[in-house]
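tool_call predict_complex ligand=pyridoxal-5'-phosphate
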Amino acid sequence: MTTITDLANPGISDLPIYEPGRPIEDVARELGFADANDIVKLASNENALGPSPKALAAMRDAAGQMHRYPDGGAFYLKQKLAEKLDVEPSMLLPGNGSNEILELLAHVFLAPGASIVMAEYAFVVYRLVAASHRCRVHAVAMPGLTHDLPAMLSAIDEDTRMVFIANPNNPTGTKVDQAQIDAFMDQVPERVVVCFDEAYFELLPVEQRPDCLKYVRDGRNVYVVRTFSKAYGLAGLRIGYAVGSPEAVSLLHRVRQPFNVNAMALAAALAALDDEEHVTRTRELVQAELGWLAAELTVRGIEYVPSVANFMLVKVGAGRDCFAALQQAGVVVRPMDGYRLPDYVRVTIGTREENGRFLSALDAWRGK
Ligand SMILES: *Cc1c(COP(=O)(O)O)cnc(C)c1O
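tool_result ok
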């Protein structure tokens, strides 16, 4: 008998399925919590302060127009972003989350027999999009859990079509600085497309932000990818964007769906860009709580990876076991065995109360 799986393209049934952070409702149902509000989700690097009130108001205003298709050209959002980033609107392409942009890049540049270069513990979606296009992955070791850009340069071979650099990186929370990036960009061959994934960019203090848009403005074969999911607190709406040369962006337009970004997301993102104060409050909360959590872990003699983003890798020993125990206590973190970091869990920076719940649950598990 021919099964449906036999009919799928080669390699599809071998692809791993992405394991997202568990939704609060899921955990509440499974563990019998009557009130989902008793559960603290620190598993998906979401914004502890929620969306900007301005974005919420814009969504309410937009709701009555949801029988209309969205503006597939995203005119107003591109115009506002272009001003903010000092690029032309033609250099921007909004996507259904920045994950869609990664998929579009794969569609344009990857094919069976080609390969990508990425760091060993970099964002796993690069691996997934490469695998789904039957592309090999050169995963380069990360000493100190940081991208080793010279080693990534050396890993480039004749088959390499793309290099992915997550900066700051998820799940390690580490970043590479401008000098390291510039040295890399001096050497990288023209025939290799470089993608800088800057999902956590707005959470960096201004003086620590690398400038990769200069490579885009210079017409290098580079894309910079950002998102409204993290600092802007709009993960549920699914909206991010790519910045590239007009020619680079026009390639992505050819493979995207006509209405890839929904109208509610366009309205909310536009309004969120007008609420810098919300982003600043978010950044300040994250900075303060990173410091607090680090100090609390140090007191307990627990190792962690110093982070510049809104999450932290904590070395707990048996990560999967810790994850399960914390979940029982109503605190959802992310196990890291999927990243081959079985000693760690990744915890998102929440409010002080949420971070306290994490520490109490961790204490209870360690004292078991
Ligand atoms: C969260 C994250 C993304 C963002 O994904 P969206 O699809 O925009 O929600 C992209 N890259 C990295 C490294 C991330 O951690």
